[in-house]
Design goal:
Elements: E1 2-6, H1 15-23, E2 34-41, E3 44-45, E4 48-52, H2 63-67, E5 70-72, E6 75-79, E7 85-88, H3 90-103, H4 111-124, E8 136-145, E9 158-167, E10 178-182, H5 200-215, E11 220-224, E12 232-235, E13 239-246, E14 249-254, H6 265-277, E15 288-291, H7 296-305, E16 308-315, E17 319-328, E18 331-334, H8 342-355, E19 366-368, H9 369-375, E20 390-394
Parallel strand pairs: 1-4, 10-11, 10-17, 14-15
Antiparallel strand pairs: 1-20, 2-3, 2-4, 2-9, 5-8, 6-7, 6-8, 7-19, 8-9, 11-12, 13-14, 13-16, 16-17, 17-18
Bound molecules: pyridoxal-5'-phosphate (PLP).
Pyridoxal-5'-phosphate binds next to helix 6.
Length: 396
């Protein structure tokens, strides 16, 4: 039994201000009226609390600030054609969060609680879900060591929090294709390390390289493997995919998950889409979708002889970001036309059509909020503005 406590925000942002933000959101800047929190202590999780978005009271000795026990997730809630709202593949995020927690020696959180927490927040703040194509409510669940202590050991107290912010389509940001610098000095992950976990420290470790790339006029860093400095891994927060012409066949490929790469839900979904549908319909067809090691020599040769047609990055925030050129050493290698490729854009369109409910969800990827809430005994109406406060024991 997980208890759910609901304290609705009695002074939410004024509708006109909210509508202004939702119409042209800046990524990660303005948050919705509520948040969900849950604390772990004495060996078990307490109630799930939906309450007004507010700063967290933290001791300066909070363990996460000192030794970095902090993990996160990212998923999106979309407004569907019929006006309802749904989370995209929330069970995948729930299981990845559990895997990250295990790697960083944090307590497990059940998939049911994870999804209920996300659904509570999105339902209470559903007026914050943008309508525009490619726009969505970005949901950020995270967990950190909240125990005030300075011992170098796993904490005994944790906080699980979910916040959300509206985000626009990546393509409205005015950057049709990004320039990516292949990093030659630092590494992101090593075998046996934390690369496969959505662990806060992984991102901090990549910032110096990201800054160097930024000063040189590049948008992102592409990481290579830590041993040979030769095999492509991924970007800072996006996986990478390649489209090849191999003897007339169009092949989508991406590096395999060998423990140093974060297993993206977007990556997995695109592989499944390409394999299941070959991207039938008008436009280019994908003959094969494979996981294979991709070396920087393959990329260089493919760009030179035309065998490499397209490269793109993929992840929840951007969905798909076309890569126009790769900077390898002091040479900039143009990919295809240097702009978004045909396969890239067709994959993006197919995924967005599913996410917005414009085509049948044959893969069962969309989780309706109402289904999550009613399964847990929460009446969605009790979360709407003006509903009376409640506290209920719910089986989750
Ligand atoms: C989150 C993330 C991705 C993309 O994962 P999605 O589930 O598709 O959002 C890829 N690489 C890294 C390092 C990430 O943190």
């Amino acid at each position: 039994m997980t208890e759910v406590r609901v304290t609705l925000n009695r002074s939410p942002l004024a509708a006109t201000e909210r509508e202004g933000i939702v119409a042209s959101p800046v990524f990660g800047q303005a948050f919705t009226d509520h948040m969900v929190t849950m604390t772990y202590s004495g060996g078990s999780w307490g109630p799930l609390e939906l309450k007004p978005f507010a700063p967290l009271p933290l001791s300066p000795a909070t363990l996460a600030l000192h030794y970095g026990q902090s993990i996160f997730e990212a998923l999106k809630a979309y407004r569907l054609q019929d006006g309802s709202a749904a989370l995209f593949r929330s069970p995948r995020n729930a299981s990845r969060m559990a895997a990250s927690a295990e790697r960083i020696a944090m307590p497990a959180l059940s998939a049911g609680v994870f999804q209920l927490a996300c659904a509570l927040l999105v339902e209470a703040d559903r007026d914050w879900i943008p309508d525009a194509d490619g726009a969505a409510l970005y949901v950020r669940p995270f967990m950190f060591a909240s125990e005030p202590h300075l011992s170098v050991r796993p904490a005994t107290e944790y906080m699980f929090v979910v916040i959300a912010c509206p985000v626009a389509s990546y393509f409205d940001s005015g950057s049709p294709a990004i320039r990516v610098a292949v990093e030659s000095r630092d590494v992101r992950a090593t075998a046996g390390g934390t690369g496969a976990a959505k662990f806060a420290g992984n991102y901090a470790a990549g910032f110096a390289a990201h800054d160097r790339a930024g000063r040189a006029g590049h948008d992102q860093v592409m990481w290579l493997d830590a041993v040979e400095h030769r095999w492509v891994e991924e970007l800072n927060a996006m996986n990478v995919m390649f489209v090849w012409n191999r003897a007339g066949r169009t092949v989508l490929s991406t590096p395999p998950l060998t423990g140093t790469i974060l297993g993206g839900v977007t990556r997995e979904s695109l592989l499944q889409l390409a394999a299941a549908e070959n991207l039938a319909g008008p436009g280019p067809v994908i003959d094969d979708a494979v996981e294979e090691p991709v070396s920087i020599e393959m990329v260089r040769a493919g760009a030179a002889d035309g065998g490499l047609l397209e490269v793109f990055a993929c992840g929840t925030a951007a969905v798909i970001a076309p890569i126009g050129s790769l900077v390898i050493g002091d040479r900039e290698v143009k990919i295809g036309s240097g702009g978004p490729g045909e396969v890239t854009m067709k994959l993006r369109q197919r995924l967005l059509d599913i996410q917005h409910g414009r085509v049948a969800d044959v893969h069962g990827w969309m989780t309706p909020l109402d289904a999550v809430l009613t399964k847990s005994g929460v009446d969605p109406a009790s979360l709407r503005p003006g509903a009376s406060p409640s506290g209920t024991d719910l089986p989750v």
